[in-house]
Amino acid sequence: MPTVLLLGAGSDMAVAIARKFASEKYDIQLAGRHTAALVPQQQDLQLRYGIQATSHAFDATDYNSHAGFFAGLPVQPDITICVFGYLGTQEKAQENWQEAAAIINTNYTGAVSVLNVVAESYAAKQQGTIVGISSVAGERGRQSNYIYGSAKAGFTAYLSGLRNRLFRSGVHVMSVQPGFVDTRMTQHLTLPPLLTAQPEAVATAVFKGVARKKNVLYVKWHWKYIMLIIKLIPEGIFKKLSL
Amino acid sequence: MQKRLANWGNYPAVASEENAFTQEDQLRHYVVSNDHMIARGNGRCYGDASLGKNSISMLKYDKMLSFDTEKGIMDVQAGVTLDQILDIIVPKGWFLPVTPGTKYITVGGAVASDVHGKNHHVDGAFSGHIIDMDVLIASGETICCNATTHEDLFWATCGGMGLTGIITRVKFDLKKIETAYIRQTQLKAKNLEEVIRLFDEYKHYTYSMAWIDCLQKGDSFGRSILIVGEHATPEELNDTQKKAPLTLPAKRKLSVPFNLPSFVLNTFTVKAFNWLYYGKNYKKVMHKVIPYEPFFYPLDAILHWNRGYGKAGFIQYQFVVSLDKKDGLIAILQRISDKGWGSFLAVLKVFGEQDSLISFPMEGYTLALDFPIRKGLFEFLDELDEIVLQHGGRLYLSKDARMKQEIFWNSYPNARKFADIVKQYNGNARFESLQSERLLLTK
Questions:
Q1: Mean pLDDT by 10 residues, chain A (243 residues)
Q2: Contact with chain A for residue B247, Cβ under 8 A
């Protein structure tokens, strides 16, 4: 059976993605910092969908461990989905380097570190699929979240370059720009319902996107055009806006 | 996130800060650093029992932990809903030990309301099938309890409407079945006397309930259809059903897409509906073998049926009076029939005995009816409450949104003891709902 590796498996979005792939009879590898916390999810996937699920310790910011982590998986996954992310607090990150570094290291450095390892393996085998969950926040820096946004911008550029490089090796790389998603990460925010996706909708979109070999996936189509408009605003005007 | 929340009756609707979690340590952190909070599952209780200033949504705490297919034991996190469990257990030959009239409730909600089903007179309420469960109390400690360990916490949590703490995990027994079908018998009863006699005559059936037309007067007062059933054996199925006895044919769901204007449900439509329902049952006794879904969950076939009562919402009034107080049942039905304020649906059932601290069921007659909210309704229901109280009965807290506090304290014999246990585990009344404030249970 094909296997999916979920990096950052504990989040609401990862839970939904795992269930979607499991319901399509994929075996699931859950990777996260606390494996004990992943056990209920592992049991749940096996029980509901009759597939094999395993839990693996993985820390996005422990870069040196990434090669060993990937080589140590019981089965090499056919699909690797990088879900982890850290929103942090913009104001705090402006004043406090630790917070800024955590945002950058989780969303960018850690993702690059682990996906480099996965990419080498897939390139050598000439097969595999890599999915990166990035963010529309990375499409243009705004005062309200530019540290998170710039880290995601870096990640988006990384995925685009990786897609370009691995195309000839037959490895598919998909970038996902979810827009607002109703998860624990955003539950303190008031989000506009029309622009907000449920984690289950993200999961279905990711599954279909992988099947159709999409390059860049917007979960809610509005976002593609919203971001297009935002990117078209001349900088002279943009800098005066409170976004 | 600040949300406008209402439960199934759409009354009351209140602003509430909603918090969800997927890990127990996240929940623990939230519980020890907040107050005025109450757990909420799928919002299928009718009134204000799971509404409060801070709402803890259990829906993402929904992992199934184990399913022993040999012994029929299920262990789940409390946010798992019964429909999800049925999807897993029925194909393996197991069924829920007790189920209410909707499968869209969480297991935590089933315990907090100590739900009953059509088999109460045989199998009791949900609490009787719990092997053990975890409750996270106000101090942040998680206590595993059952009928023999930490039994005070256990009994105050079953039917305790979430006031002892957050139910996080429940392990319970399942019932063995051979098919996903029910052998059903429907019997026409021309009035209340007859349906009560039929209940007694058919009490050996595992499942029984009656649909009662409350608008009839005179000789037809309380005319009913008694529906009884048993899990069907493979031999009782037809050839198509026999091919896959544990699988149900796929069915499309209907939905009420928005709130209907309230005049849609007036006396005339209710009468027409009742006439059709009674008329459809053209023979005195009818037998058939049907899938379990329409038998247990007829209204689940219409998603959002509650919107049929309009934006103002409705009250589902459910009470129980003891078996020797049949005159109480008659008196209340009389008042409802005289008032003509209609009830789309009225369900009559005979409960068996149940030993409990604060659960609703007790041996007697229970009747459930819907009243669309209108001017004067609460005063009318207050009058009905008095009759219930005079006949040694009580109201179901899961459906209540308006009962006066003295009715609660005078009708639940263990109210004081329950409140004392709640105090012990729920320090400074940190778990609190609109209902518990109204009934002065957490003051």
A1: 95 96 98 95 97 98 98 97 95 96 97 98 97 93 93 97 97 94 81 86 96 93 84 87 80
A2: no
Greatest extent of chain A over all pairs of C-alpha atoms, in Å: 56
B433, part of any domain: no
Go through the domains of chain A in sequence order and give each one's CATH number: 3-238 (3.40.50.720)
Write down the ipTM of this complex: 0.89
Q: Which B positions 36-65 lie with beta carbon below 8 A of chain A?
A: 60, 62-65
A86 among known catalytic residues:
no
The answer to whether position B140 is within a domain reads no
**Helical H segments across chain A, by residue range:** 12-23, 35-49, 66-71, 90-95, 97-104, 111-125, 146-166, 199-211, 222-232, 235-238
pLDDT band at B252 (very low <50, low <70, confident <90, very high): low
Overall number of domains in chain B = 1
Interface with chain A: mutation pick from B27, B28, B60, B142, highest number of A CBs within 10 Å: B60
Q: Confirm whether B198 is domain-assigned.
A: yes
Domain of B311 in residue numbering reads as 181-398
**CATH at residue B272:** 3.40.462
Q: Is residue B405 part of a domain?
A: no
